[in-house]
Amino acid sequence: MPGETILLIGASGQIGAELTMLLRSQYGNSNVVAADIKIPVGELAESGPFEELNVLDRNRIAELADKYKLTQIYNMAAMLSATGEKFPQKAWQLNMDGLINTLEVAREKGIKKMYWPSSIAAFGPTTPKTDTPQITIMEPNTIYGISKQAGERWCEWYFLKYGLDVRSIRYPGIISYKTEPGGGTTDYAVDIYFKAKQTGKYTCYIAENTLLPMMYMPDAIKATLQLMDAPADTIKVRSSYNLAAMTFSPKMVGEAIKKHIPDFELTYDVDFRQKIAETWPGSIDDSAARADWGWQHEYDLDKMTADMLKHIK
Fold this sequence. Notes:
The chain is 42% helix and 15% strand. It is α/β, with parallel strands linked by helices. α7 packs parallel to α9.
């Protein structure tokens, strides 16, 4: 759509960096403002405007809304699951206050549309493990998951109370060759490819048969843009949409890698992240996203593995 000006907070992160570049290709480089406390280098810094921003600084977000006459905000800033368990108060403050700051600025400044990501971490040990429904028992027991579930409630409340067009996806584990792991429990599925290519071996901190929902970055970006481009009257879920592409275990990834690197060695040294993984679903029912805005994934495990190994140096 012409005339859009977008602020993407957390632009130096795993999803934020790639999402920023695709938004710039769609809306024009000068119309997508990247923002983060971490100053980027390379293409992200050079291709369009960048603003140093701490998402906890509400006044600064409001300043940028005025400066750029923003029409959309994407808030991708968060502390992820494994890191959040080490620094629970910091994780809660960043994840919750950051969200409320952006919701408030969006409301005050008349921002047309806002995006905030949730996660499968919003589910918990009492959630049905197989084909987890869109609406179900959640009861997360990690700080990251608790903040995501609370955030979903805030997003829906702002929609119901103020009519703010805020949209969200519950991301599964996200895999990319462009950014290093960022402190998530599912990051083994990124690191394993880097280690396979660099050393031919990997020691996994998740048990071999632990099934978790996963998605390749191009599909995650495609889903995000598709959701944000959908007409408002097709968005029936105002908490956060389930999203799925594939489900696999560390053992299954190892077997997929061995088709390309036959001598690859996979061993296990299970740590505290296993307990986190065991509270999450093994597979996701995302029929609401497929029905409401036409979501379809492109990558399965074998197709993703071939692409990952092709691109990692």
